[in-house]
Here is the input.
Amino acid sequence: MSDSEAERSVAERAVRFAVCVGVGLVVLALPRPESVPPEGWRMLAIFVSIIAGFLLRPFAMGPLVLFGVVASSATGTLELDAALAGYGEKVVWLVVSAFLLAGAVRDSGLGRRAALLLVRKFGKSTLGVGYAQAGAELLLGPLVPSNTARGGGILAPISDSLSRALGSEPGKTSEKAGTYLTLVGAHCNLVTAAMFLTGMAANPIFAVAARDVYDVPFDDWTTWALAMIVPGLVSLALLPLALFYIARPTVTDGRPAQELARRELEGLGPWTRAEKILSGVFTLMILLWSVKAWGPLVGLDLKPDTTMVALLGVCALLALNVQPWKRMTHDAATWDTLMWLGGLLTMASALKDLGVIGAFAESAGIWFEGAPVLPTVIGLALIYFYSMYAFSMLTAHITAMAAAFLTICLAAGAPGMLAAPLFAAFSNLCACTTNYSSGPMIIYFGLGHVPSTTWFKTGFLVSLLHLLVWIPVGLLWWHFLGWW
Here is the structure.
């Protein structure tokens, strides 16, 4: 790059960064609700500036969030230890562990072997591979009580390997199949997270909120699954096809890849030591992750922490010399994710703790005062859904907003078994909106097959598909069940 080109690049970056700061200053100048302290309003301005940065891209996500973390402390909005608290959250290290495990799958060749097996079985077309991903999510959804562990730790590496087997390299030839398969994997993950109480780690938080507000049995596994099974299956049937047209792969005939997979599987020969150990480690991890669901059936009352299980998996790979520490430390994507995810989680928590989210929920209740029950529930559900743009974790979104919105629905006279299933589904599906909304979305985005602008555009279109499926189909199904 010449000096003049470098100067233009620096100038362009400076302009974009100045626009992001300007957006934050505009927010800061808006009237502040009395219930929100000055620190909360400053936190909102900083957070909005960072989100604008994700769209304008003056810097990579890691530096942008670092700027936000430093600004939150330098302006007196947060104490420094509070500004850094997000980096100690368990969910952050669950994502980091998933990245490290994914690297081992990639480096050992296990991901490639698994991808080739899938291509050989389902690879007659790229669309068929997409439906294979949806089927894998449906099988694992009720058993693995962490959508990050399921989507990011198990299936994302396979999706990446499938893309590469079909000729897609991140950022180079992703349009062949990588963009499509990445989006299918990420968005189907959210559907299965919504379908089962054990499909996402924070679902029990919502279930308890629904029980406390409405006294409905939504903390029962069967009740949750019954509520979600019909709209969930409709979503899984439509998503791969819809994404096929939204992010149409240029490689649609999978038969050449299918034949190549057969030849390459023969060339791979017997399973290697690393592949066998990885398979064993993953099997044990899946059993431990799912023991909350199947354990009571055999007299086991074990509830292992999902992050601890992931960290044990990483330690096992190190101890057995499957993946050397030096290789792990060189995985830049892992540590970049740690930087921006921990910072975003800090900001989202601060918005809740400083009263910004509470003021938002109160304002929403005023907007629908005196409105008919059904439009009120749907309207509040839409606000709840799209407020996910302001959150970097589903858990934070549910914890901050679910009880407040259910309380507003109760005050409006909405039946509990109408509001609870709709908000439970949207508590997961809303993560389709951004690439920073949940662990699986972060990990799939980190594969590098989908630019951030494409992710935001596709996320909005998928959100419309969810609304078109889950509101009419869900409401009709719950009415058929006699719940409202």
Observations:
- The radius of gyration is 23 Å.
- Residues 23 and 49 are 6 Å apart (CA to CA).
